[in-house]
Amino acid sequence: MPQMDTYKNRAVYIEFIAKEDFAEIPHKERFTIVFITSGSMNIKLNDYPIKISAPTILCLSKDDRVEVIEKNKIAAQSFCFHPDFFNTAYFSEEKGYMSNSLKIETGLSLFKKDDVGTGVFAVTEKAYPKLYEWFFIMGTEVYAQSDPLWVCRIKKYLIQILGLLEELNSHSEQSPVDLVLEYIHTNYSDKISLEDLISCAHINRVSLNKMFKDLTGFTAMGYLLTYRLKVAESLLTHTDMSLNEIARATGFEYDTYFIKQFTAKRGMTPTEFRKESREFAYYQH
Length: 285
What we know:
Blueprint: E1 3-5, E2 10-12, E3 14-17, E4 31-45, E5 48-53, E6 56-60, E7 66-81, E8 90-92, E9 96-98, E10 120-122, H1 128-144, H2 150-170, H3 176-187, H4 194-201, H5 205-216, H6 220-238, H7 243-249, H8 255-266, H9 270-284
Antiparallel strand pairs: 1-2, 3-7, 4-5, 4-6, 4-7, 6-10, 8-9
């Protein structure tokens, strides 16, 4: 069932289930994220047997088939969203509410099932608190609709969850650089210093930056800035959050510094980027 946005009188095609019983997953015509927080279970996913132990996140597309064979003290919650959730109308001062063809790209690879991807992602000890917090806030906003930007807030946390899972899945080793990447992808919204990254990697600054440049083309702090701006782009495109809110959500202490860095790296201001990305999607549609 869609949620009715009481502020804007529209249907929002999302649903949060606080106690997932696995009786009706995946949810019809939706992407479904199941966060298993305790216990273990044996399932067949598309006829392939899988044993799952908490904490784990299960990413399901509408075409997946799930059969629960056995559950052992399992506790889980789920969030599902229609593929068009990120295509909801946005407001233009000139034209009012406009539908568009904005497409989220972050994290969609998590829902693909092939020889590499199973849709089952173990949650690391360091990532668990953030994922749990973001999931909790999404669920709270679905029911509370605390202010007119509640949908934007859910989009924000969904983008962060999918982005973190995608990054953790692409760096599964435990080299010094992988340890720092996990730290950045989990904590980029917080204040991070070079000393924090050096401490995480257990190597000196020169060695860390050399290894980072070899792998990513950036220094450690340069990669942090690049990743923050990448998340900011998604928030600018898919939400109506203010620049100050986006700055805080991506680890910039002041919106003026965020605007300065974004403009220097992207060649346009955040406001110009938001307008251009939405107008492009609208006219393409």
